[in-house]
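Folded chain entry —
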Amino acid sequence: MTPSRRLLAIADDLSGAAEVAAAVRSRTTRSRVLLLGAPGAAGTATTLRPRHVGEATVLDLDSRYRPAAEAAEAVREALRMSWPDGDGRGGSGAPDTPDTLDTFAPFVLKKIDSQLRGNVAAEIAALAEGGAGVVLAPALPIAGRVVRSGVVHIGGVPLHEGDAWRAEAVPPPTSVAQALGGLPTALIPLTTVRSSRPTLLTALRAAATAGRVAICDAETDADLDAIVGASLADGPGMRLVGSGGLALAVGRHLATAFPATGVPAAPAATGPVAPGATGSLATAAPAAPAATGPAAKDTGSPAAAGPATPGAAGSAATAVRGPTVTDALGRGAPDATGASALATPAAAASTDGPAAPSASTAAEPDAAPPPSANTGRPVLVVVGTAEPAAVEQVRRLVEDGASHQRLPLAGLLADGPPVRLPALTAAVTVVSLGASPGSPGRTPSYEAVPLPSPRPAAPPSAGEAGPGSGRRLVLGLARAVRAAVAAHHGAVDLVLTGGETARRVLDALAVTELDPVGQVHHGAVHLRTPDGRSVVTRPGSFGDPDSLRHIVQALRPHSTKRKVTS
């Protein structure tokens, strides 16, 4: 890959796009995230033009829960618009040839969910049109998600035997090939992946020549590095598809393939991650992953996304690369002894419990928290994920003094005015879904609320979170966040869990472009809006129980000790 070669990355949701942007950004490569189809977004042909030589453009197509035909067309449109004249032919109008591909085409990376959710088959079929070779490697070793014999395993358990798809309306695929819905495939076994590059390259070429998607086994970051190296050896004709693990491998490849192109070097880490925390960033520079052995198994839960055991391939210390959370935030370093996430826990007393409905069918707590003594911007944490792990993450954040607002499902699903949040006077406010409007109170209650798939379906009954209501719930959540941010005098920093939640909230706030700053831990990406606001996105299934604590602490470092509870 030459310094002038452009990288086009396409993601089906926002948290995945952010993950890719952070993975590929380094001293040699700049990156940015564009939210296509967002209200107020600029024309596609204009926004896809790189701002800098060698810049990686990462597109969020927002296609995971769209109809398959629409998702496929979104991929085709992104590919067409990535050419200089926007017609996919390099300005000649002639069919693609090896020469025109080498001159005009960008390298293409398609980000998919490591658990194979979304329109995987339709989007890959669109990528393969025109005879382009497709290499699919969905492994994510850092999260204990590997591919063995063409089957995704999470913590050692085959995907179809676990509960990772519990919120989906259909059962999980029994293999990667089945997820492709009948597309012709060729399995590239682990023995071939770990053989010499010429052997692996020959296998990938044979699959492409036969019009088959090459499905690659992979258990370590070194496996993914080998797949990327072989795939890019022939130029842009081979299109890569995979999870954040493959994006990290692409980033390592870009960082070593050619000299720096003017991207400022990442400063030393000042992040607050405690020793041993999930995905802690031990170094800002890329490091070569271990060549043997799979990442350590997690506990079997798809929510477990902790690092591998020390020395294992895929550990956060070596795999998570690029810029870290740094002094670019404009705030000092945290206390090294494990500071609380809040500057003034007493001032930001918890108001946990469901918000009380007002006369306008909106909801708010029985009493607003007193103003924060901290002069920094408030942080609004929006938890729109159905993952059980989020319950404990919220509980720990509230333990540190965050104001917790549980919004009633009936209010979020209802037409009319948005659910009303109290004024953002607390240093940190966390918003999650409540089971019902209930009555106000300060007794902590952290029941898990099942969140259905956002894939469109028949409307649910009033006040119910039935099948197909997931999108309406998230839209209602986004409306509530927009109203709260609009009512606040000054900027508000955001933490958004779940790609669907993140996209709906940023659409509501008319944010169409983001620049990556770094990662707090794997998958928790710190980005900045054009007007300087901080946004942290994170997939719902990522992060250990202290994930939200670490994210908030990175945005608001200080020296206050964590509250001690009996």
In short: Residues 102 and 235 are 7 Å apart (CA to CA). The first strand starts at residue 7 and ends at 11. The chain has a mean pLDDT of 75.
